[in-house]
Amino acid sequence: ELRARLDGALQVDPLEQGKPRRSLGEIDEDTLELVSLLFDSIIQAADLPDPIKVLVGRLQIPLVKVALLDKTLFDNPDHPARRLLNRIADATVGWVEDEERTPHSLYGRIEQIVEHIVGQFDRDLSIFSDLDAELAAYLVPEAARARATEEQVCSVAAERDRIAAARIRAQAVIDQRLQSARWVPAIIESMLNEGWREVLYIAYLSGGEQSRKWLKALNIVDR
């Protein structure tokens, strides 16, 4: 499939007045295989969303052209074209399909990059460096927003855990004392479970088990 698509892409060089480009028979089979492997490693990644895989897949032909022009593509992990591919893959991990796809969204920016390469790239490899720099600059505030959201989620989760721990502890000390007592009037048991448990809960949230408020509330339970 890659060779069939490449056939049409390499027939004529518009910059050389109709002069035929290299034929498929002249193309190093290893080059095609290495490009295929490079894209397979990205497209088959389980954490890459399908819409992003479709976009990235459109870059196969341009990357074959890059490989024909610059053999260091496979030897240099910091090659601009590979760096751009890796940045796209890293940036879209965790992206979900119901996120917005406006021109200013992450998906929209990547789509613009792909379309620019497919439509404009011929021989000038600097296009990859330029687009990689643009994407990196775009991702700086995006990363900051992601960190802020993550911190907020973690804070909410921590507070939820603290509240749950306070409720469990308040009920536990009441249950412990009721079970160890020989006899407790029903009205007292009801008061502890339905009212004083909330006092203990609030005291625990306020200062923990070493706080004066907690110890005072617990002393009243014992009395």
Walkthrough of the structure:
By secondary structure, this protein is mostly helical. The chain has helices at residues 2-9, 29-43, 50-57, 60-69, 80-92, 106-120, 126-180, 186-207, 212-222. Helix 6 packs antiparallel against helix 7 (126-180). It is rod-shaped. The N and C termini lie far apart (83 Å).
Order of helices and strands: HHHHHHHHH
> In which range does the helix fraction lie?
over 70%
Termini Cα gap: 83 Å
Structural class: mainly alpha
- Mean of residue pLDDT? 82
**How many β strands by DSSP?**
0
Largest sheet, in brief, is: none
Rg: 32 Å
Shape: rod-shaped
Beta-strand percent range: under 5%
Separate helix tally: 9
List low-pLDDT spans. Answer: 12-20
Provide tags for this entry.
single chain, 223 residues, mainly alpha, 9 helices, rod-shaped
How would you summarize what this structure contains?
By secondary structure, the chain is an all-alpha fold. Helix content is 70%, strand content 0%. The chain starts with a helix and ends with a helix.
Q: How are the secondary structure elements laid out?
A:
Elements: H1 2-9, H2 29-43, H3 50-57, H4 60-69, H5 80-92, H6 106-120, H7 126-180, H8 186-207, H9 212-222
Helix pairs in contact: 2-4, 5-7, 6-7, 7-8, 8-9
